[in-house]
Amino acid sequence: MNDVKRKPNMPKRLKWYSFRWRIMLLIVILIALPSVYVAYCIHAATRVLPMGSGPAGPNVSSVPFQKIWSEGKVSLIGLGDSITRGLGAQREHTYFELLQENDDVQYMDMKGCGLRHVFPRLEARNYAQDYTVTREHVEKQLPSVPTYPPDVKGVVVITSGGNDLIHDYGRSEPTDGAMYGCSYKQAVEWTEDIKARLAKLIEGINGKFPGGCQIFLANIYDPTDGVSDPQLKGLPRWSDAVKVVSLTNQKIAELCNSFENVHLVDIHSEFLGHGIHCTEFWRKHYHKNDPHYWYYENLEDPNRRGYDAIRRLFLTEMIKVLPAWLRV
């Protein structure tokens, strides 16, 4: 009777080995989570994203194109970077060419919806060049544009500023005109410089058309669909990428608002959900009806469907502006 009896309310002491399954589960989780993430990254970096088929972007009414907008001389001018030049698609499927004349076989819903149908005397010149930044658009492209006589109206399309952000792809320290990897604080100053150069470009173009012109300026899209993870496609990490793109687009919008004849073409919003996360249904910008990739293999430029979307966005803004302007 020397054994000491355990008191009824005294908690039972757990043996150390009763924790083994919990410890093992924790170890498995700690090993599995990084492995799953690494597998996801490898998959994201190597998979071929589907482009899809059919029309891309907003519907465009054919009604405005059933009447002539002007019998006078009109010059369509393209300025800027590789998006306006057309890298990533055959020439006839770039947005600059599609603005003039639709491919009725490829895009049957856009039959007749081209500027040549409403401007019988349209002349078109594209001065845009691949890999160029805003400074080159002012210093090299603008001087190439002739000064037109007063009886010529101008319609100008511009994509500019994107290369200022992505150059030099993280291969050198970020600086004005090659901002990749910069902090938001650095971008505050450099985006003001972008805005100033674009203002100079616009002022210069206005001077080339004494008879008047309307300018359509696109903002900058985000191939990461708002996730800010360009490293998935082999580029260096850039945690502030989305914030910098947003700030740049804010400056472009401010610039458009400061000129009566400059109109914002919002390609940024339309392209969200068509970047490197286009097939991931849990993402904020996932498009159930068109979960497809609108970018070229270089991640910078559109593919054929992306260019279709861009021309529709430009035409949508032009319909709002040009018929009424030319009737005055």
Task: Explain what you see.
The chain has about 325 residues and is of the alpha/beta class. It has helices at about 20-45, 80-85, 95-100, 115-120, 135-140, 160-165, 185-210, 240-255, 265-270, 305-325; strands at about 75-80, 120-125, 150-160, 215-220, 260-265. The chain has 10 helices and 5 strands, in the order H-E-H-H-H-E-H-E-H-H-E-H-E-H-H. Strands 2-1-3-4-5 form a 5-stranded parallel beta sheet, sandwiched between helices.
Q: What is the gist of this entry?
A:
The protein is of the alpha/beta class. It is 38% helix and 9% strand.
How far apart are the termini? 114 Å
Count of distinct structural domains: 1
Major sheet: size, sense and barrel closure?
5 strands, parallel
**Molecular shape:** globular
Q: Which series of helices and strands comes N to C?
A: HEHHHEHEHHEHEHH
CATH superfamily: SGNH hydrolase
Which residue ranges are poorly predicted, with pLDDT under 50 across at least 5 consecutive positions? Answer: none
Can you list the strand order of the major beta sheet?
2-1-3-4-5
Q: Percent helix among the residues? A: 25-40%
Averaged pLDDT: 91
Gyration radius, rounded:
27 Å
Structural class, from secondary structure content?
alpha/beta
Identify the CATH class. Alpha Beta
Count of beta strands: 5
Looking at CATH, which topology would you report?
Rossmann fold
CATH architecture tag: 3-Layer(aba) Sandwich
Count of helix runs: 10
Taken as a percent bin, the fraction of beta residues is 5-15%
Using brief descriptors, characterize the structure shown:
alpha/beta; 328 residues; Rossmann fold; globular; five-stranded parallel β-sheet; single chain
